[in-house]
Amino acid sequence: MSSLTIARALTAGLRRAMEDDPKVILMGEDIGKLGGVFRVTEGLQKDFGEERVMDTPLAEAGIVGTAIGLALRGYRPVVEIQFDGFVYPAFDHIVSQVAKMRARSLGFVKLPMVIRIPVGGGIGAVEHHSESNEAYFAHTAGLRVVTVSNPQDAYWGIQQAIATDDPVIFYEPKRRYWDKGEVDESASTRGLFEAAVIKEGTDCTVVAYGPMVKTCLQAAQAAEDEGKSIEVVDLRSLSPLDLDTVVASVEKTGRLVVVHEASTNLGLGAEVAAAVTQRAFYSLEAPVLRVGGYNLPYPPSRLEEEFLPDLDRVLDTVDRALAF
Description:
The protein has helices at 6-20, 44-48, 60-72, 91-98, 101-104, 134-138, 151-163, 212-225, 243-253, 268-280, 304-307, 311-323, and strands spanning 2-5, 24-28, 53-55, 76-80, 114-119, 144-147, 168-173, 180-183, 196-199, 204-208, 230-234, 237-239, 256-263, 289-293. It has 324 residues and is of the alpha/beta class. α8 links the parallel β10 and β11 (230-234). The radius of gyration is 19 Å and the shape is globular.
């Protein structure tokens, strides 16, 4: 058992995957000698060489396009997109080629590649360094989309993603990179596409993922001090969605609040709300409520704390659910 930050857990997970399989290669802007903007790949080029940890030009379409070719030839490329808002030059490749290659070939061609994307705000950066664009990719059939919220999931999740024969969009909450936690390097705790109940409760279910999981745990603790029992579910996988875990929780608590940084307009929360309402309608004692960013372009950094969901907004929404 080790105590690691999310960033260091990702480094350790990448290292182990590269040791286990010589076909695993890393590609991205400044990931080699610099170790990436967030130092997630620090030291890996020194240990594995420039042919397996490749510094690329500043050209996301070229990076992802090259990774497609490598995956078709039997490699398992792991691409780093430096910031969430930089992925758009590669959007055509991802939705038109990466997502469709396996279906286009009637299953004969696999595309085992991982696209790592630091996601979300909270670091005092400009808008295209602070976006939450997961709904674009979760909406796209053929892509697996996952996100981590703690070092244990980071360490095992990146290895599981690399071992997956389908392409995986792997979101990493950048403002949580330095949060520490225990990592059991001897065994994985759960499958890559499974949600997790990380705090038991009886009065209301709060579902979150990525950077909002910590916020919701803090809200649950504050609510507990007021005599309210909140169950917190970490969604972990955005496509596919583990609705069985969410529905089982809602059937117990009777209420559901979904929390994410992205705008609630056509966001993941809307899909979860619709699916749970369809499957657990008679268990609900209140409408499913959502907490998210506003339907606006990401604001200047001096205003981002007003834009991002926080403990108070989560607690206020839980109180509204409990008031029904």
